[in-house]
Amino acid sequence: MTAVAAPSVASLVQSVDWLAIAPPTIAAVVALVVLVADLFLGERRKALLGWVSVAGLAAAALALLPLLDGDRSTFCLKTLKGEQAACSYTADHFTLVIQFLVLAGALLTALLSITGIKDAKNTPRALPEGEFWFLLLSSAAGAALLPASRDLATLVVALEVASLPAFALVGIKRDDRRSSEAALKFFLSSVTATAVTLLGVSFVYATTGTLHLTRIATALTHVDGQFHTLAQAGVALTLVGFAFKTAAAPFHFWVPDTYVGAPLPVAAYLSVIGKAVGFSGIILVTVVAFPSYADVWGPALAALAALTMTVGNVAALRQQATRAYSAVRLLAWSSVGQAGYLLVPIAAAAYSKDADKAIGSTVAYALMYAAVNLGAFAVAALVARTKPLNRISDYRGLYRSRPLAALVLGFFLLCLAGLPPGIIGLFAKVTVFSAAVDAGLGWLAVVMAVNVVIALYYYLQWTATLFRSPEGEQAVQRIPAPLTAAIGLTAVIGVVLSGAPQMVLRFASTGLF
Predict the structure, then answer these.
(1) Does this model's pTM top 0.70?
(2) What burial letters (b/e) apply to 51-67, b meaning 16+ CB within 10 Å?
(3) What gap in Å lies between CA 245 and CA 197, rounded to an integer?
(4) Which stretch of DSSP H or E encloses residue 439?
(5) If phi over 0 gives left and psi between -120 and 50 gives alpha, with beta otherwise, what is residue 175?
(6) Hey, what's the torsion of the CAs at 151, 63, 506, 497, to 10 degrees?
(7) What is the Cα–Cα distance from 456 to 88, expressed in whole angstroms?
(8) CB neighbours (10 Å) of residue 40?
(9) Where are the alpha helices (DSSP H) in 209-322?
(10) What confidence tens digit (pLDDT) does each residue in 32-68 have?
(11) What element of type H or E holds 286?
């Protein structure tokens, strides 16, 4: 009995490539360290937890460097001959680029959060430091895991690990009704989207008998005719949860209230890392798992892209400058519009002969958007220190009181609009536009062009406000070092990329095929 059982038991044992899984693992381990350390540190020393979190995210990002020499996989199924059949975790070029975006974005969010937590200390809205850093690191670990996931089970688990801490982060402001309502709305809508996604995953599994993406791609080409409709429904429903994370219309309704109710650094985190998670998932399930059903997801994503960019830009256009939190609301609706642009190349991949190039356009746009949007939120956090209602009208005359901050915010807004000197924004939009044209989606390119013109108005209107004469005296405070670092880093990245925009597209080449 023992001699027979031993080989079968040994076949279940795998060696784990710890180097491949190091980035998300480091973030998760540091999260646990911070949670435990919070129990033993006094209130005066809890500020150290923020810097430990920053160091942990930096270490996780640096762990990407040894992985640049080639693709690595782990948690793989083996054939009878001992060959790799399918893997659940793959650290290829696409994975590394998205993990860099996620971890760098989380690092910048952490720098913003250090200042925000310090400002809120000893006030009725003080944030629990240990819990905050644990939740942020846990969410970042899940977000870093998702682009490496190569089976639907791991994808859904990574999506939830990234999402569940985010619900708590949104509602972490105690005794704040707006924060609690935002967290509840975010939670309920996300849970519904996840339930729909799991239903789709079950349909896909029922028709293919596997959860690994590459095996699903093969199995879907031989689906029995009677299961064809079930497979189509599974493909469509699986996309719902990821569309929710990207804030694609009509799954976008949670965005403005959630961004306003959440602490400002958390809103910045959701606008960038949340989108990176969603778009990574959409890319993996469409281009890798469902290429044979491009006739289903291609038109659906094209319609979603057109609807999303239109809804986002029109809503942003309607924001009133004197309304409370109008600056955050405008950035929220702007992020919905930007999500529409990001969906265009993914939809184009369904019609293009070079899907890898189309996906590279989305990744390149995401990198540009991450840098400049985090920078815009960083300047918004600076203004909120003296103008907590964060109205667009509060930015009037910012150039006179803080000229460098005004110039940087103006640059970020021009990047988002796609106007010089924000060359990287213009380059990213041209890349996305050309992806639609090359795929034969001329109508979608026209819709995008119209939306870019609409967006120009509200971006330029906000930019002009920065240089108008201020109303009354402007309060000036010393800018904390972490906030200065966040603004400076995003500004440097934006300027450097505007000087050599082709670097982004070269770096973003996905290598999925």
Answers:
(1) yes
(2) ebbbebbebbbebbeeb
(3) 12
(4) none
(5) left
(6) 130
(7) 43
(8) 7
(9) 213-219, 228-245, 255-261, 264-269, 275-283, 294-317
(10) 999 999 988 887 888 899 999 999 999 999 999 999 8
(11) none
